[in-house]
Please model this.
Amino acid sequence: MGNPSLTESLLADAEIDNLYKRATQSQFLRLGGQGRLERVTLSEWLSQDRLYAQAYIRFIGGMISRVKMPVEAAAKGASATLQWRILTLLQGCLAGIMRELRFFEEAASSYNLDLAAAYPGEQRFGPNATTKSYIELFDSFTTKPQEESPRTLFDGLVVLWATEMAYLAAWSYADQHSGQHDAVMDFETDLDGGALRKLFIPNWTSQPFRDFVEEIRECVDAYAESQTGEENADARFVTAAAMVKKVFVLEEGFWPLIAADEVA
Model:
């Protein structure tokens, strides 16, 4: 049996595992899965997720600028193949996030959701504190690589994996509380009109999305293996662990807090 991969090692870390559970098992998700989430609360979250998605586009663009394609047209080998694979993945990320933004607009129109809903305590619409931190993280990859920013392609792949993996796990948690697999589903009494259980949860727990997250994981592990000699393995783990912890803290903060007296 070989050594564990980077992603396996990260998920085996006790601190990361604790942050992961906190990031993916919120009351917002549980209530959403049960159809007990108010439309106004869903709007507050969705409006922030839309801002996240816009910053995600710049993040992916910054990562693409860090891909080092082979100089020779006929270049082959593991390194050249991996760079092409990563570029293909990032191309898929851009296509996916564009679909997502259209999906948000269509869902908002169908279910009367407000994509410019001000967050509680805010006078006007804009990114809340957690969204601002996510935007800052994503935008740290938009400067010229190796000049104005220390961010590397490795860093970006780890961030991408952590955020998408957490998203899949979070909506899978909501799905566990949704009764989606019952023979008969009734969305008529859902407080959000059925938006989450009919559209959002199936979208973010689908097999294509699972395959996408798995491809990111494989690219992270392959890239780490290609770049890391035995003497650098510990340093790579420390760097990756710091990124993953930061993302999971942001993911936990991204879900709106729901007071006990707000639960229907």
In short: The mean pLDDT is 90. The domain at 6-262 is CATH 1.20.910.10 (Heme Oxygenase; Chain A). The chain has one domain: 6-262. The two ends are 51 Å apart (CA to CA).
